[in-house]
Design brief:
Layout: E1 5-6, H1 8-14, H2 32-40, E2 60-64, E3 67-74, E4 77-85, H3 94-112, H4 130-138, H5 140-162, E5 166-169, E6 173-181, E7 187-195, H6 201-206, E8 218-220, E9 222-223, E10 226-227, E11 232-239, H7 241-249
Parallel strand pairs: 1-4
Antiparallel strand pairs: 2-3, 3-4, 5-6, 6-7, 7-11, 8-11, 9-10
Length: about 250
């Protein structure tokens, strides 16, 4: 299950929050309802409570403090499509208001279409639209860089512990990293990329290896223990031992 994110409409109108720059993914916005939704949908096997008053699609409940929300899951991507406050016994209660709005939307739809809906509610207008998907794709680069940095840190930690090459498979390429210390106590790091390499990927990878100068990378034609494979690129550099110690201590 991918991280929960609000629709742009829900963010602005229901949560009354400003749209952050694209460098801030919407699933990272600090809000109690979004945090609770992220917790509830962190695992595929988690149980969820359906909003029974809505019958045209499956919307799931999120509750925290006085906040209430409705989540719709598109494949494995959960969206908070509506939000509001709990007001027990009041027509302004979020779930009561959601039902009333959904029934009114169904009535409007049937009034304008010869083939009316057979469901009691209509909530299509709450679902993510084109702008939501454009924003999600625009955040892809930010998500990838964060994933890459975390992966490089994990690979560095693993190879510092045993001196062996460790690798991780991404969608179109494999990233490998190996650190060796020589008798002079210099710490050498070798990075290799195998597979289909997107534009500027190597620069992005090398600039995020912990403890290495960006200008210190040199291309290699073999790794410490083997020759390069077809469609494989490799580079080497010196790693600051203080940075290596910080990785191991983290």
């Amino acid at each position: 299950m991918r991280p929960v994110r609000p629709t742009l409409r829900c963010l602005r109108e229901d949560l009354a929050l400003a749209l952050p720059p694209v460098t801030v993914p919407l699933d990272e916005i600090d809000h109690p309802l979004l945090a609770k939704a992220a917790e509830q949908f962190a695992h595929d096997e988690a149980k969820h409570e359906r909003i029974r008053a809505v019958d045209d699609r499956v919307l799931l409940k999120v509750k925290v403090q006085r906040w209430r929300g409705a989540v719709w899951v598109d494949a494995d991507l959960p969206w908070v499509v509506a939000a509001g406050h709990r007001e027990n016994g009041s027509a302004d209660d979020f779930y009561a208001s959601l039902e009333t709005e959904a029934k009114a939307a169904r009535a409007r739809y049937n009034a304008g279409h010869a083939q009316g809906l057979r469901t009691a509610t209509h909530t299509a207008h709450l679902l993510p639209g084109r702008d939501d998907h454009v924003r999600y794709r625009a955040e892809a680069g930010v998500r990838f860089v964060k994933e890459l940095r975390a992966t490089l840190w994990d690979l560095t930690y693993a190879t510092l512990r045993d001196g062996q090459e460790h690798a991780v498979d991404f969608d179109t390429f494999t990233l490998g990293l190996q650190v060796r210390a020589d008798d002079g106590h210099e710490t050498y790091v070798a990075v290799r990329i195998t597979g289909s390499v997107p534009a500027n990927l190597s620069t992005l990878v090398l600039s995020n290896v912990p403890g290495c100068e960006a200008e210190g990378w040199y291309p290699e034609y073999a790794l410490p223990e083997r020759d390069l494979l077809p469609a494989e690129q490799a580079w080497s550099n010196l790693m600051d031992p203080r940075a290596a110690a910080r990785v191991l201590d983290a």
